[in-house]
Every structure is written in C-alpha cells, then in structure tokens.
Amino acid sequence: MSDYAILTQHLRKSFGAAHALTDLDLAVPTGQVTGFLGPNGAGKSTTIRILLGLLHADGGRAQLLGGDPWTDAVELHKRLVYVPGDVALWPGLTGGQIIDVLGRLSGSLDHKRKAEMLERFQLDPRKKAKTYSKGNRQKVALVAALASHAELLILDEPTSGLDPIMESEFQKCIEEVKAEGRSVLLSSHIFSEVEKLADTVTIIRDGRTVDTGTLAQLRHLTRTQVHATFADPADALATWPGVSDFHADGSGVTFFVDYDQLPAVLAEMASLAPTSLTANPPSLEEIFLSHYESETGEAVK
Amino acid sequence: MTSPSPRQPLARLGTSLRFTLRHNRARLIVWLLITVGMIGFIGAYYASLNPDALRQLIIAGDTVSMKSLLGWITVASSATGAPLGAAVWIKSWMFVGLMVCIGMVFLVTHNLRADEDAGRTELFRSRPLGLHSTLASTLIMSVTLVVIIGVGIAVIGVAQHYGVLIGAEAASDPDSLGSWVFGASIAALGLLGIGVGVLANEVMPTSGAANGLGAAIIGVFYLIRMGADVQDLDLAWISPIGWAEKMDPWGDNRMWPLALVAALALVLVIIGWIIESRRDYAGSLFASRLGHPDASPWTTSVTGLAIRLQRTAWISWAIGVAVFAVMLGSITPMMADMFKQIEFAGIDPSAGMLAAASMLMAMICLGVSSFALYSGSSMALDDAHGLLEQQLAGSVSRVSWALRRIGVTFVGALLLLALFTTVFGAAYCATVGDWSDFGKLAATCLAYIPSVLVLIGVVVLGFGWWPRQSVAVSWGAFGAMWFIMILGEALKLPEETYKSLPFLSVSNVPADEPNWTTLIITLVVSLGLVGLGLIGLKRRNIPA
Predict the structure, then answer these.
(1) pTM of the model
(2) Is residue B303 located within the same domain as residue B160?
(3) What is the ipTM of this complex?
C-alpha cells in the first residue's frame, strides 16, 4: 500500500482559453483526512474530476490509490466513493432505491450499514427523490457513501444544506472512518468542520496550491489575538517586536502578535503580572483569509 | 373553506411574454418555416405536373382506406373542381395538421411543466410574477404562432392558385377563399393542440407525462375520426379533428368549425386555468405516493436501471403501436385499387396489396423507430443533469456504460417494431382471410434493423462529440428522414440516392426481397457511427 491515497504534482488543465488548473499539488496521506480549501472557482471540483477520471489533465502527474486515475479508473473506483457538491438524482426513484443503485455501481452495498446510516441521518428512504429537500438530496449521496467500506472517500462539499445536528453526525462518521484507517479528501467551505476533522489542509487559489500542511504548520503565517488585563498600565507592550494593532481599553489591552513571537511576548507579559489572559490561536478561517490579503499585497498588520 | 384567488394573477405579463418569446425564438421560426415551407414545396411540385397526372393522384386517394387515413374533401370528388388544391390537401393536410397539433402540445409543455420540473418556475414565482402570467404568455405566443402559420399557408395557397378549376385560367375566379379555409383548418388543429396541451400540463405531474397524455388524447381523436371516415364521411363530426376536416376548403368552404374548435380549446384552457388557480407549485391532480425503500436487485445494474426508468414509456408506446397496427392492418387490403399509379421506388403495380402494405409499413416503422431517439437521448440528458458523472464515479467504464444503454435502446425499439409488424400482419391476414403472407409481414421488422441502428448511431455520435447539441441534431436528422419519406417523389431525388437511404431502402419489403447489399452497407455505416461516437465519448470531458 502506498503512502498516499492521492498525490498530484503540478497538475494542469485548461478549458479552451480558461486555465482552470495551473500548478496544483495535492497529497492525501493514507489513513488521514485532508482538507481541500479554496474560493469558488479555484479549481477544487476540476481537481476532483481529474482524480475521478472524468477529465484528462493537460499536464502534471496524478496518482490515485497507487494507480493512474484516467487509465485505471474502473479498477480504482471499486475502492473509493464520491459525494458530489451537487447531487443529481433520478426523480422517479425513491432515496432508498437510489442508494442501492449507487452502491451497486461502486461494487457492493452493506445493507446493515445502509439501515444504520439511514437511521443516523434520519432519511426516509421511501420518498421519491423529486420530493426531497436540498439537504435530504445531499443525505442520499452521503448515506450511499458512508454505508460503504471503501478505502478512500472523496467528498466535495458533502454537508452543504445539512442542519447542525446532521453536520455533527457527519463529523462523527468521519472520525469513525479515520479510526478504521481509511483516507478522506474533504473539500469544504465550513471551516469548523475542516478544523475538527482534517489532519492536513491544502489551500488553493486560481488553480494553484498556495499552502499546505497541518494546522500547526499553517499557523506560521498568522497572528494570535491576545487579550489581557493588568493592574498597572502596560502600554510598553505596543512597542515590542511582533506586536501589532495594540488597543488599550481601561485596564485591558488587546493586541495581535505574530505566531513566532508569541512565546517571547508571553514570557515578557508574565513579568508584568497580568490579572487575566486570553490567547486565541488563529482559526482556519483567519489562515485562509490571510492568504488573500498577503497575496494582494495588503499585509494584515 | 376555499382560499381566495391570488391577486394580480397576470402581474408582469409583458416581461413574461418577452422572456417566453426570446426563449422560444428558434422553435417559432423553425415551426413557421417547416409548415409553410412544406406546403409551398408540395404545391410547387404539383403545379409543375400536368392536370391529368394531378387527376390520377387525386383518384388514387379516393378509396375508403386512404380516406380513413388522411380524411377527404368534397372538391376532390368533383370532376372539375380545384385539382391543385385537392392534391395538396390530400398530400399534406393530415400530416402537417397533426404535426402542428402534437407540436403545439410539446411547445406548451416545454414552457410550462418543463420549467416547473427544473425548478426554474420556483425562481420566477418568487419574483412579483402573477400566478397565471407564464400560462398566459405561453398561450399568447402559441396562438399567435398558429395564426401566423394559418395565414402563411393561406397566402401560399392564393399565390400558387390552389383554387383554380380545371380548364380555367389562373386569373379568373381562383377561389381564394378556399385557400384561407385551408390555412384556417390547419390553424384549427394547432388550437386544438394548444388546448389539449394546457390541460395535460395542469393535470399531469411531469413534463413527460404531460406530453404523453396530450399525444394520447390527439391520437384518440385521430382514431375516432379514422373510424368515422371509414364508414361514412359525415360521421367525421364526432371528432374535433373531423371538425377541421369538415371545413372543406374549395368545396363547402366553411369557416365556422374553426370557431367550434377554438371554443373547445378555450374550454380546455379554462379548465386548466382553474386547476392552476388552486394547485400548489409543482403539484398536479395526482399526488406523489411513497415508494419502496429498497431497489429490486435487477434494477441496480446499468442495464436494469435503464429498463426500469424507460419501462412506463415503452409500455405506452407498445399500447399505441398495437392499436395502430390493428387498425392499419385491417384497412390496408382495401388499398389495392389505389396502387395502379405507384411510381415510388420501382414497386411493380400489380403486386397490389402487399406493395401497399410495404409502403405503409415503411412510414410507420420510421415513426416507431423514433422510440430509439427518445431512449437514446437519455444518455445525453443524464450527462446534462450530472447523473453520468455520478455513475462514472462508480466502477463502470464509459464505453461499457454506453454499450449497455445502447443495448436497452436497440432492444426496446426492435421489440416495438416486431410488435408492430406482427400485429399488423395478423390484422391484415385476418381481414384478407389468407395467412400465407403472415410470415413475410411479421418478419419485416428484421429488415429495419440496420435502419434503426443508423438512427441510434446518429444519437451515439452526437453523444460522444457534441452532447449538448446532440438531442436537437438527432431529432433534426430524424425529421429530415421523415420529410424525405413523406414528400417522396416531390423532391425529385435521384433514384439511387432514394434507394440507399435508411428506411427508404427497405420500403419495398415485404413485397420484394430486400436489397441485401444495401442492408449490409447500412449496417456497416451504423456500426461505424456507433464506434466513432464511442471514441469521442472515451476522450471527452464529463460533463461536456
């Protein structure tokens, strides 16, 4: 078994004059969840379609479960499941029938798991697909995917339209998948979901990978927000290296400190005897947005 | 307690109308050109024939069986009356009229149910658009189209002097009124189609079901008229199609049946309007029921799923084909006397009844084969709706998926053809009382296999290389085949060309032995088309 469930290097794809992908690197280590983030139109769905053998890349390399996604598609698809961003259903069939069809297309379906998933996601399999709400349509594809034992799950905005209870159920399922040693590529706009589930994250923009790594590694570009209260005024903090956006507000101060300066700043603060201290690490959303501001040259300082 | 009607039911009608016209502009132009163009073409061709030849053509139509198929007008029985008008009417009225009638059903569905199915109507209705505005716009557009078609045909008729009597000069008493009645009678059938279409759209839950119901109702009207015309021409009044027939251009010249048909259409529209006032968005008279939570194992494979999804349509087609086959088979033997004048495809006139059967079967086989287009188009539709992507994410290769779907389409079409030729043959032999030709008649469907495969080949070729346009292109190619068959000798095609086209090349079966060389070449060409299509499918982006 190879180290990577998915590995792409310098992937390129154009549609006529439009360059969808110019230099896309993506790696999903086996047995891990990899988040795949990017704004609308960045090339996430194009990348996924190349991995599924629906599109042929113009350049670069792509490897899926140790094989070529274009030539070995039929064989490899027995080992993966896919949840599209926009689920298409056959209007006249019921949800349960569609799940069976999707399961059969992938290989086989575990009926016990299907029943279990239908229960967990509270989906009525007897209703005709055209009567489902948007969230329920999504659930049909989710149940079909989660009821399988595929080694790789490729999920493109799988929880769009799901309510918070179902979102939480989905996260539990992915944790279980991870515990079984299976791999997941999770493309999502829901930062909290990716933050909780992903071991590594790849951020792309305009068809190129702009950053990749674990959350800890990604934080290097960002700042931590610190709020502290002191008995005596501590304006001297504003001048310390790495500190920015300093606000004093009565006895409390708020400032941002560069991630790599944080240990030094905190050590210095200890000597000032703060009466309360809160430090918020940058959220994934801040990391993501910072790529925009730094790319356009407007530094967040 | 009944809820009050929504206020401002026709709000933003102008915007809705502009949008509807814009959305349909290609269709409107195509309809106008083919209906008026076809009649003009036929008229020009017949005008080039000498009056005696024209007279022979009219006499050929003066049999019980032809009258039951095509209808009849009194001027055709008259020795001196308007031969050009009579000939054009016999050749084109039923065909163009039915085409406009059913075409209007489809046009109405395209603008009403199809949008609701796709969810576009939901977007529109969330804007300040009146409840009935879309229906009203569709009505205004289609009624205007039908009127323009009627006027266009009338103008052609006047210009080509359809009403001129035998022996008279073109300029003297050309009976222009007859041409106007002619145009109005086709417009009447168009109005009928609009009315039936509106009702079908409000009653049925999906666009497919609406089209099916609309076409079935028109079909029933046609069969009633056919049964009536077989017995006694005055009985035609029992069918709305008969009302249009009884307008009798160049004969009794009655304009008032147009008002009668219009009134019927209006009643149907009003019923539809009332249903729309009360029903939910995307609702209909038939509510959705719960289904099975599990799929039967045989329906989960690509082949099984395709059969399952096309099952209802196939059964409806089969019922229609069987009914039609019984009626046609029974009346064809009466056509023997007509074929003293056969010039088509070199059929020996003395072959009589069997020759008549062959020609008729050719036309109907082409029609039945359109099932292959309907079924084959589902591949491109799956692609457009994202279903192909989802299925190919499973463990099935593109070519293997396509071959299974093509197989279902081919077998479905072949079974319908076999049903037609067998039932037709049985009805024919039962009427004649002689079963010796039954085997030949029933086996005719086999001769059409290469032709059906060519149709499928065109669909697959389009699906592989230009899927978004493929459905329209396939139906266009089918329409062209249909026109060539109907217009026949009027197109003055070289006989070699005529004999090598699919369907036409076997139109002499079973009266004659099929031309085996042509059959094999057609088969090879069709397999080539399928192969090329699959090559395109293998290499293209999905979705296109």
Answers:
(1) 0.83
(2) no
(3) 0.80
